[in-house]
Amino acid sequence: MQNDADRREALSRAMRQSSGGGGRRGMKPGHGYIESVLFSCLLLVILLCGGMVLWSYANHKPPFYVLVGDRSGNSAEDDGREKAAEDGQENRTGGMKELSGQVQIPYEVPETVRVLLMNSDFSSVYHDQLVLKGRADEITIMPAALRETFDEVREQLLQEGFLLEREGERYVLKPHEAGTGTEGNAQNSGRLKILSISRACGTPSYRGCLYLYVRDDQLVLVNELSLEEYLYNVLPSEMPASYHEEALKAQAVCARTYACAVMENPRYPDFDAHLDDSTSCQMYGNLEEHENTTAAVEQTKGEILLFQGRPVSTYYYSTSCGIGSDISVWQGFAVEEHPYLQGRSQNAAHEELQLTDDTEFAAYLATEHEDVESAYPWYRWSCQISGVNADTLYEKLKERYQVKQESVELVGMDTESRQMAELPYPGRIRMLSIDARSPSGCAICLLIEGENCSYRIYGEYNVRYLLCDGDTTVTRQDGSTAVMRTILPSAYLILTPSLDKEELIGYSIIGGGYGHGVGMSQNGADTLAALGVGYRDILDYYYIGTEWKAPKN
Asked: Buried (b) or exposed (e) across 474-501, using 16+ Cβ within 10 A?
């Protein structure tokens, strides 16, 4: 297996010469050296086993190797690639992880996933009703009817080609026959076509079954299906199907790994759902399946990334500004728990940068770099905001405070008293400024100075949200424009206030990239794929020091 230096050199050659990523090569030690090492290892094993047998006999317990099972036939290369332990990490034997004498069973990729379906504008998990396309007609399911006239609803659904059963507090809905709800479309045969949900593709159709929960005269919908089929509808919703094959395969592994990581700590335990179908997790069902993205899922079936034996948090985003970020851009995330997410430049040099100072980051944005995505429109952008509405800003502050109190700090209030029944009104806004940056230059704290009080807002998303006035026209580096309704493209920005006789009348912004900047850049992956870099090397490039797990057969 290549070490990091070898891999960086291979990727550098690909980016410089537009050639393939190159094969894997390893150094072979001399013959005498191998004999010496083998003899030493054999002697050590004999002494160790003898000692354990004596110890076990003295304590009337079976030897340790019996407790954990005979692993002599297991390989350290169960998926064809080395899984050597790093210095300071736990030893790995046969794919198992030993911690303080305990053995952890190797991680296995789940077969199914449960996805909570949001309403049409992704504003709520609740639905007033469920409208399905039946065999001959539409059928509407009301929450109250499920409780009060369940048998009638079940019979009506059966006539339209659906099976409905009750399981405790929830109801299970399945297609009864191929073609249900498909209007004769063989591609969607046996899927649930939900007319009461609108997505970018129009009316979405779902594989698997649907669990219905009734809550306060509303419905919660949870779609259960196989993990691989779930990815069929994630990939086209998250990456253009026209991207290069190796980029799509990298995205497939990312999306599968991300889902597995979230399943370790489900988002919606009250509804037995692992994640939802919005951008807060992964977009699912927003666009129709495509043969290119489906092929990428099938060609990487079961493959995920691991770190210390568990699924990696494979965050991804659209476009970098030339540098990636560690996880410190989000408040409350421990950098040391995610060492595979690093803030490094996205080019052949791949050096680490320290851009916490405004002047240093402004100089970085103004300088030309040979970055992977320097030709993309979102690589650099700018916008001008006229006027600062204190009332609008105040409403946004209250909203973010309700979501996460720790993200909003009233300047001057001690930490122990930060919980407030209502945020004080800041009054006329005197100044806006970036109060803190991550090492990658990402703005992670915004200072809002009002005539009555001042606030600090933490987290890259909150900075983007507060600085967007809801009608912000952004000009990309190619001269094209886009209107941002909710948040700015990224928090990799320089904020310059516009003053009139010391009165704040607006501000201008120069920024770079699109998205949070953590993990894999999707446009970066597509560029590397165009240069001939394979999907596994693409992922090694973005998730440092992770291990591969693939099906053994």
From this structure: bebeeeeebebeebbbbbbbbbbbeeee
